[in-house]
Structures are given as C-alpha cells and as structure tokens.
Amino acid sequence: MVLRDAGFQGVMGWASGYMAFLLHKHHQHVLYLQTSKLLYRTPPEMKAAQSVLLLMLCFLLFYWTDCFMTLYVTFSLEKHFIEVSALEFVDLGYAILSPFVLIHRDGHLTKCWPGQ
C-alpha cells in the first residue's frame, strides 16, 4: 500500500512539475507582448505555477503527517483523546486549507473584502 501511494505521489509530483514547466514556457513565449508597466507585476502564468506547487507541497505535508500519526496512534498502547483529535484534524487539513490558499493567491478576491 505504501509503494502504491508513493507511486501515485510520484506521478502527482511529475504532473505538477510538468504543469509548472508548461506555464513557465508559456510565460517565456508571451513575455515580448508585455509592456514596461507590467514588468513589475507577477504574471498570471507564474502565479498559477506557484499555486500548483504550493498546493502539491501542502498536500504532501498533510499526507505524510497523517501517515506518520496514523502509524503512531495504531501502534501506541493507549489511545489518548488529543492524539485521535489531532489525527482527525490532519485528515481534514488539506481540504480545509487548500481553498484558503487559493483565495489568498487570487488578487481579485482580496479587493472584495470591506475595509481594504
């Protein structure tokens, strides 16, 4: 099972890296179309590549933390409420955190908040 998970994570890492490479290549092709006023802003291709890599790293962090915590809770002699609650939080961590990462990365949504 661990070998299967590692294989799929390798495929996910390769796909994310390839997507970032394609976005960088696209950015290089359209670089000549940008004017001088746009040079100091981060292009959308680079933001997308950074978001893809950030989400992949976030997923891997939560996955491996969950894996190690599950092994610890499984092989520990006593099951403590805090350990089991922390494991449940880590199980849901990626699903809870990833939308906020995407919202934070999108500059248009931050303009909608009142007071900014």
Automatic annotation (TrEMBL):
Its main location: membrane. It is found in: Cell membrane. It is a multi-pass membrane protein. GO terms for biological process: response to pheromone. The keyword Protease does not apply. GO terms for cellular component: plasma membrane. It holds the Pfam family V1R. Keywords: Cell membrane, G-protein coupled receptor, Membrane, Pheromone response, Receptor, Transducer, Transmembrane, Transmembrane helix. The chain crosses the membrane at residues 45-64. InterPro entries: Vmron_rcpt_1. GO terms for molecular function: pheromone receptor activity. Belongs to the G-protein coupled receptor 1 family. This is Vomeronasal type-1 receptor. The lineage of its organism: Eukaryota, Metazoa, Chordata, Craniata, Vertebrata.
